[in-house]
Amino acid sequence: MSALAVTSLCPFDGTNSAIFSRADFDAIAEIVYGESGNVYPEGKAMLVYSRLTKRLQINRTASFGEYIMLVANNAAERRIMVNLLTTNHTYFYREEHHYDHFINTMRPDLIDKAMRGKPVRIWSAGCSSGEEVYSLGMAFLGEHRGEGMRIASKDVRFLASDLDDQSIETARAATYAKSALTPVPADLRNLWTKNIGDEAVIAPAIQNLIRFRSLNLLHQWPFTGLFDAIFCRNVMIYFDTATKEQLLLRFAQQLAPSGYLYIGHSERLSGPAEDYLTAVGKTIYQRTA
Ligand SMILES: C[S@@+](CC[C@H](N)C(=O)[O-])C[C@H]1O[C@@H](n2cnc3c(N)ncnc32)[C@H](O)[C@@H]1O
User: Fold this and answer.
1) Is 268 found in the same domain as 134?
2) 59's torsion region: left (phi>0), alpha (psi -120 to 50) or beta?
3) Is the per-residue pLDDT at 228 higher than 70?
4) How far is it, in rounded angstroms, from Cα 242 to Cα 36?
5) Domain total for the chain?
6) CA 47 to CA 94: how far, in whole Å?
């Protein structure tokens, strides 16, 4: 087919520049930014090129220029493109110190709240394929089946959302390679997952706590209630400062009084959200205003 099939050369290297030009890269980066807030620096040109060449072939477009025109008028393909270009990397029990804080500082109060019949609401915002929210579910139900099942019978809900429908589908399937569960403390893993061959399936008691939904964080949020905790980790790292600060403010305002916001290890609180949140640990903030 097109000349694309015969090249695997680096973008902008002077060869085949008509196939993937700087202007093509800029146009794609602008679409991705507009749709998701994710910023693509020029150093990522090779990544853009390699992740999208297959889409050019599938759509029978002969050049990136043609593909960009298609994407501009086709919302479904635009969504696929954005999902291909966002980073979904995640794993169970990532940034263990957050789980320590969640278990030791938040959990006792939240269990007390749940047992008094009050709703407990936790949001994994940018949940990717679900490892984060399932880790939280296991940590919350704890190491004892009886207690865990009592907690699970209360009004406890985890919302897990992501831009990427494919990741949400993977998350809903609740099935992972057994080895992926290794970082989870053995007591929790043994209690709340079941091994089937090389795979581990998350227990129904945990699955039932979670509502997965497709949600772009930059759009309107379809809920009015406040959250006891929001985990938005390793998502804002790809945003520019303005987008990040706006989002941090919205998270702060969506937290219940004394609620906690957990962000990724390389992210920092900045902007107007600082008026609402106080640092209480490494990348952990509490709503204090
Ligand atoms: C690197 S993963 C982080 C997953 C998990 N929170 C963790 O820390 O392991 C980033 C996730 O953010 C999602 N994402 C990026 N931009 C988004 C947006 N504007 N709205 C919602 N999700 C977004 C991506 O689809 C991806 O699944």
Assistant:
1) yes
2) alpha
3) yes
4) 13
5) 2
6) 25
Q: Which atom of ligand 1 approaches the CA of 94 most closely?
A: 9
CB 86 near ligand 1, within 6 Å:
yes
pLDDT, the chain, mean: 93
- 130 with 195, same domain: the answer is yes
Q: How far is ligand 1, taken at its centre, from the CA of residue 224, in Å?
A: 22
User: What digits encode the pLDDT tens for the residues 63-117?
Assistant: 999 999 999 999 999 999 999 999 999 999 999 999 999 999 999 999 999 999 9
Report whether 127 contacts 211 (CB < 8 A). Answer: no
Beta carbon of 116 within 6 Å of any ligand 1 atom: no
Residue 42 belongs to what domain range?
A: 3-85
pTM over 0.85: yes
Please indicate, yes or no, whether residues 124 and 22 belong to a single structural domain of this protein. no
Task: Determine contact, residues 23/14, Cβ cutoff 8 Å.
Answer: no
Q: How far is ligand 1, taken at its centre, from the CA of residue 139, in Å?
A: 21
Q: Is 162 a catalytic residue?
A: yes
Q: How far apart are the CA of 117 and the centre of ligand 1, in A?
A: 32
Together in a domain, 238 and 117 = yes
Indicate whether residue 160 lines ligand 1 (CB < 6 A).
Answer: no
Tell me: pLDDT of 8 over 50: no
187 alpha carbon, distance to own chain's centre: 26
Catalytic residue (choose from 24, 162, 164, 228): 162
36 CA: nearest ligand 1 atom: 19
Claim to verify: residue 206 and residue 274 sit in the same structural domain: yes
Atom of ligand 1 nearest to the CA of 87: 1
The tokens of 280 are what?
Answer: 């209480």
CATH number at residue 216: 3.40.50.150
> Which residue's CA lies nearest to atom 26 of ligand 1?
88
Residue 91 lies in a domain: no
